[in-house]
Every structure is written in C-alpha cells, then in structure tokens.
Amino acid sequence: MNFAGSKTKNRRISRGFLILFMSLIALIELFPLVWLVDFSLAKSGDLFASNILIAPNPPQWQNYVTAFIDGKVLHYLCNSLVVNTITVVATIFISLMVAYACTRMRWKMNRTVMNILLLGMMIPIHATLLPNFLIYNKVGMIDTVFALLIPYIAFSLPQGIFIMASFLESVPRALEESALIDGCGVYRIIFEIVLPITKPPIITIAIMTFLNNWNEFIMAMTYLTSDTWRTLPFSVLQFQGQYASNYAVQFAVMALTALPALIVYILLNEQITKGIVVGAVKG
Prior knowledge:
The protein is globular, with a radius of gyration of 24 Å. Helix 3 packs across helix 9 and helix 6 (about 145-170) packs antiparallel against helix 9 (about 200-215). Helix content is about 70%, strand content about 0%. The protein is mainly alpha-helical. The chain starts with a helix and ends in a 6-residue tail after the last helix.
C-alpha cells in the first residue's frame, strides 16, 4: 500500500477544508463593511427595504460629499489625528521606560509593580467613565483635550508595557553591559542602544494603540461639550435629527471614519503579528 501517497492526499484534503473554513470566516467578518458601503451609496429610504443588500441605481456619491462638508469631517479628522498621535507617542515612550525599569533594573518589588500595572488590562476603559467625569468637573478639565488624553494613554499603557517587556526579556543584556562598562548612562543606553532594537514592539504598540482609540466615542461624548476637540465619530451626529435622520449620509460618515483605521490595518497587520510573537520565545 502507498501510505505516503495516502498521507499526502489526506493532507491536501485537510488543507482544502481549512482554506474553505477560513474563507467563510473572512466573508462573515467582511460582510458588515460591505453592508456599510452598500447602504452609504443608497437613498435614506432604501435602508428600510426587505433585502439585506441592495444595488443602488444610481449610486448616490453625493452622500460622501455631503458627509465630508456638512459633517465637518476635516475638522474632526484633524482633532482625531492630534489626539491619537499624542496618545501613541506618549504610550510608546512611557511603555519603553517602564518596561526597561521593570525588566533590566534591579530594585525592590520591580516584579510586583509590573504585575500591578498589567492588571490594568483587565479593567474596561469605560468602567472609569463616571469617576473621571466627576474629577474632571471638579478640576475644570471638561471640554479639554486632556480629558481624552489621560484615559486613552492610561488604558493603552498596560498592553504597551506587556508587549515591550516581553520583547526586552528576549534581548541579551550583553550590549547594555558593554555600554555600561564604557561609561554610558542609563538614558543614553535606553535611547541609543535599546530604542533602535525595539522597532518591532514599537510598531506594534503604535498600531494597536491607534486602532483601539480611533473609533472611541463614549468618553469623547461624555467629556466634550463643544466642537473644539471633538473627534471623527462625532460627524455622525451632524445628520441625526429629533424626528428624522439622514441615514444614508450617516452610513457614508461611518465609512469615512472607518477608512483610516482600515488602511492602517491592511498595510501594517503583519507588523502587529511580528511585534507580538517576537518576544514570545526568549533568545
């Protein structure tokens, strides 16, 4: 009997079923996005049609023009970019410092402090919505950019510290020890030796922090009372009326809001995987 041929055939069948199964999962995951784009090109009344998907005839491209102009997309987009850029940079900087201090320096209770910081991964960001609001209201921080930056950075740090610490644990200490013998200070070691070799986790932290905070709406809705620092998801509210809403344009706004995050994920999703697994096996 040809056991090798039978084994190869079974492997091909298993691979075929795996590809079919993963393709089905991919279609299920992509369907909401397809549905969103489909109805963003339709008329508002078409949303109440009995069909799951429709063929807009003709496509209402004007919905996107209206969404961009009347939805203040450019203003809100700039606010989102500013808030997310500051959040990403601060998260990377603090994560690097804390991870280095807890994994490379010897001091009392360093592991305990690390574990306490990582407990933040178990706390949902919106669990602090009401306490934060009361504190911000007392100190006059309502409707300021710091009302968003503080919780965004705070709840991005546990994940960032975990990824950075996992990577540093896999890096040999020889380079740092050599630099220390040559007279380098701790900050020079961090920024001239450690920082260049931590590119994979830095990219991963940047992407995941950006994606986690880009579409956040509940905190922004609670803490911001004017358009000064409102972020991109607020564009949807521009087309919501008391008795009626322009649903098609709202769908167009949501498509525009999701586009930057989608582009970032498509272009850099491989970096996310590399950054997470690179520290999984210690060298």
